[in-house]
Write a structure and sequence with these properties.
The complex is a heterodimer. By secondary structure, chain A is of the alpha/beta class. Chain A has 15 helices and 19 strands. A five-stranded parallel beta sheet of chain A has the order 2-1-3-6-7, sandwiched between helices. Chain A has a five-stranded antiparallel beta sheet with strand order 9-8-12-11-10, with helices on both faces. In chain A, helix 2 (about 40-45) runs parallel beside helix 3. Chain A starts with a strand and ends in a 16-residue tail after the last strand. In chain B, helix 2 packs parallel to helix 3. In chain B, strand 3, helix 3 (about 65-70) and strand 4 (about 80-85) form a beta-alpha-beta unit. Chain B is built from five helices and five strands; from the N terminus they run βαβαβαβαβα. By secondary structure, chain B is α/β, with parallel strands linked by helices. Chain B has one domain (about 5-125): Response regulator (Rossmann fold), CATH 3.40.50.2300. The chains are: A alpha/beta, B alpha/beta. The interface between A and B is medium-sized, with 23 and 23 residues.
Chain lengths: ~550, ~140
Amino acid sequence: MPIHVLHIEDNPGDALLLRAILDASSPGGFTLTHADRLATGLETLGSATFDVILLDMSLPDSFGIDTFRRVREKAPLIPVIVLSGLDDEAAAMQTVQAGAQDYLCKDELNERMLARSIRYAIERHHADERFEAERSLLRSVIDSLPDQIYVKDCESKFIACNTAVAQIMGMASPDAIVGKTDFDLFPLSLAEKFHTEEIAVFSGQPRVNREERSDSAAGQARWMLTTKVPLKNKDGVIFGMVGINRDITERKYGEDRLVKLLADLKKSHEDLKAAQLQLIQAEKMESVGRIAAGVAHEVKNPLAVAVMGLDYLKNTLGSTNPAAAPVLNDIYDAIKRADTVIGGLLDFSRPRTLILKPEVLNEVIGQTVALIRHDVSKKQIVMEQNLADGLPDVMLDCNKMKQVLLNLFMNALHATPKSGTLIVSTYSTLGRLVRDDGAVFPAEKFGPEDAVICIRIEDSGTGISDENLNKIFDPYFTTKPVGEGTGLGLPVSRQIVELHGGVLDIRNRRDGKGARAVIVLRHLNAASGSKRLEKSEP
Amino acid sequence: MNKKKILIVDDEEGITRMIKMALEQTGHYDVCEENKPMRALMTAWNFQPDLIILDVMMPGMNGSELAKLMKADRRVKDVPIIFLTATVTREETDEAWQQNVIYIRKPATLPELINGIEQSIEAAKVNGGDEWIAGSQ
């Protein structure tokens, strides 16, 4: 394949000479087209393709480096060899710097040199093109990446950066950033922070994958994953740094959502556990209830026989043997006690129906308090009543609720030492505040914003031990001495409160001065005409 | 003085025997025991009691059903009935009194039983028996 050469030369003699040299060096290896002016040459370039241009620097219609530039402009993809005279070597050098492949001194031309120069020029040009293509590819890659990539020198000046950096800084192109430092681009405090970090990097400590908060130009909160590593040359000397920033805002939000989900999950888990405990407790009650009726029947019949027999004995023996009377009475008492236990069991196991009516809570409390006056004064206990005014009526089975209150009062009295205090309070509040107070109950019972009414009874005893706290609602669990309680009071009370749709929560007082029982009841809704709820937490 | 005739129907022999002994020991009562509720009606025809005591929970037939049968039988319908039962709580007994159905809880003392018997017999005399409302439990 012959090499197509365009020779732009005004001197005909030089032109002929060059043609001769070319032919001699490689017959048929070159085709030569001659133009004697720049204008002609440029025109020819427009109509034919050439592999190389030989360009004389001094032409009638152009001079010096300008000649080269115009040719280059017209045909940027064709390698140019500049031909100069001895006196304009310096200018010729300039053209090489400007992109010419070579310059040759006209007076020193010979066959070998010219041919070689042409071939080298073409090769080098191809090499340049390949190099440029690769560079272009790399540049495309870096500019296509969404991550911000930038390079700085050891003085923290930007040497290069990709378009993502320009975008995030609100600049038109990377060129607006090259040559500047952070102090030119960021607020002072931020620039100082970056500078301090970079000093560490320049000393050889990379900062890899740090999560940092960085707000956008518009002021939006964004999270970045930043990496800054030192750049080393092949001798291991640090000559700059490269940094990569990745926007992880979405990921961060995703993480935040996950954390919240986890918290919600944990809470659901806790609620489930609480519900499960409740179910287990209910099961226990169920079992006891189921056998209660059968047991009651089986025990009451023998007791009936015994009681009837006792009466018979009293009537027959009583007259003849006075010593027999106390014995018979003791037997009678024993039977009565057994009967009470059975009665309690039956009471507890019987499915209950409540007769609900709107009641004034404080009055119900008052009536129950009246019942315990004697026990209170006997132990010289101080009773404090904090009964809120203006509480709405509550739907209650008055008798059953009094039974519950009595049970709780008696427990409190029993726990309180002589001259201690017993506090009873009533107040209206919200579901979440009851929870905050430490009460535990399933979520469906009362929502956090549900209006509820509470009755709280606090004693000044020693409180309930941790191991007993779980047992107090178990049937027949009691800490009272034998004969002084069936251990059914609390399970029955809880049952009654739950039938009212409420919660009975018993635990130790926060101030550690004893135990406290809280009954939480649903508020009468507005539709039934209750008074407006006002928070009156004491 | 004429002794009052009492028929006691309870599947437990121990109960009927003890009640019989205790009541008869007072000298005022003549007691017939029946441990098989199915036979109670016939026993009642033959014994002609002044009052019938029925246990509520019995195998085969409970006291309420038996009471209804008796109230439907022309030979026995005017005889007052009281229920003796293990499974009624004190509360329910008091409520039942309000409805003119007398339930006596086991274990009942002799005085409680006698009280119930005498009240029932008196009430039956006053009301003529027909107005007595059977427990419809």
